[in-house]
Amino acid sequence: MRQSQLFTKTTKTVPKDEVSLNAKLLIQAGFVDKLMAGVYIILPLGFRVFKKIENIIRQEMDLVGGQEMFMPSLHPKANWDKTGRWQNMDDLFKFKSYYSKIDVALGPTHEEVLSPTAKKYIASYKDLPFAAYHIQNKFRDEKRAKSGVLRGREFMMKDLYSFHADQKDLDKYYEQVKKAYFKIFNRCGIGKKTYLTYASGGTFSKYSHEFQTLTEAGEDIIYICDKCRAAVNKEIMADQKNSCPECGNKDLREAKAVEVGNIFKLGTKFSKPFGLTYKDKTGKDQLVIMGCYGIGLQRLMGTIVEIMSDKNGIIWPEAVAPFKVHLISLRQNKKADKIYKDLEKAGVEVLYDDREDVSPGAKFADADLIGCPYRLVVSEKTLAEDSVEVKLRDSDKIDLVKLGDIVDKIFKL
Q1: Quick one: fold of 325-412?
Q2: DSSP string spanning 241-287?
Q3: What tens digit of pLDDT does each residue of 323-377 get?
Q4: Per-domain boundaries in the chain
Q5: Alpha-carbon distance 69 to 85, whole Å?
Q6: What's the order of all strands across the beta sheet hosting 350-353?
Q7: What is the third-level CATH fold of 3-310?
Q8: What pTM value is reported for the model?
Q9: 154-164 and 289-296 strand pairing
Q10: Helix, strand, or coil here: 296?
């Protein structure tokens, strides 16, 4: 991608009401733009990051047997009445259709849609288990949208729902998804700072589990057990008698964290209202047991920015970076053009700063702000040594690599 053709630009200004680091950096670097409180446009650079996060999630959900689908955002009131959440969910967007006059909701979650759909296809224990997921936009009428892209009113989310004949089967699958979530967060570069955290199960079960990533931007307080790497959300700490639920250790440390994912054992909460049953081996009707597993994509992107940045900008992990290489030409566009074409031909993703009316200092500042893993500089000085300057975004060390070796060098990095 030639930077001269990118319709967005970096900026030094951000909306006056924006206080979170993730939103400031994403706006300044040209990854997102704020439309209104809690609603952000994902711009071309941001969309590349978003799609990489999405594909990592998709790959791991497919590996645990998830079947991808697409569900509507418009939901009929009748479905939400069945579960009681039309009246009880305080952040549900509700309105009346102008033409049909029916009451509808904008989906904040999809249990009320998938449960009655599953009923059409589940008849026997032989139809279980199965899991289905989707990755699409959700809507929540947050009383106060805050924390940048970490908490919005419209956002993209991966929801996986699993359907089982009994609790034992759900428990087994639940553990598989736990492992898949850690693989996702490791691949996205935040695994070392992310903890499986016991939280309130609400009306679902005694506990749910959150995946909490340590950051001062976090909205939650968690207590970490360094003995077994489990954690407890402050909201249930009193119930735990200040001890780790995994190993009983009482020497826990307090930290701020942001929730990047959650998993729930729903039991029969959403199968019972819709009569979602199956016939067991004796021919008796039994309620289907369910689980749900969520990850917010913008929230994950924002969390990466919060913990992987410095005073100069973002430091993207390679797996989710918009481009692997930021190639900068300092008035040596012919040579840089060839390097750009050679790298692209070799399958390397390159953001090529070919702008002729921008100073070297501004180009370097933009490269740091945007945060691609590797910076390549072509200048009169480097070409005098038949070389290209190579620097990692998170390092001060600069190497000179011969022009003929640059493609091989990038592949080895």
Answers
A1: Rossmann fold (3.40.50)
A2: TTS-TTT-----EEEEEEEEEEEEEEETTTTTTTT-EEE-TTS-EEE
A3: 999 999 998 789 999 999 999 999 999 999 999 999 999 999 999 999 999 999 9
A4: 3-310, 325-412
A5: 24
A6: 350-353, 325-329, 374-378, 387-392, 398-402
A7: BirA Bifunctional Protein; domain 2 (3.30.930)
A8: 0.96
A9: antiparallel
A10: strand
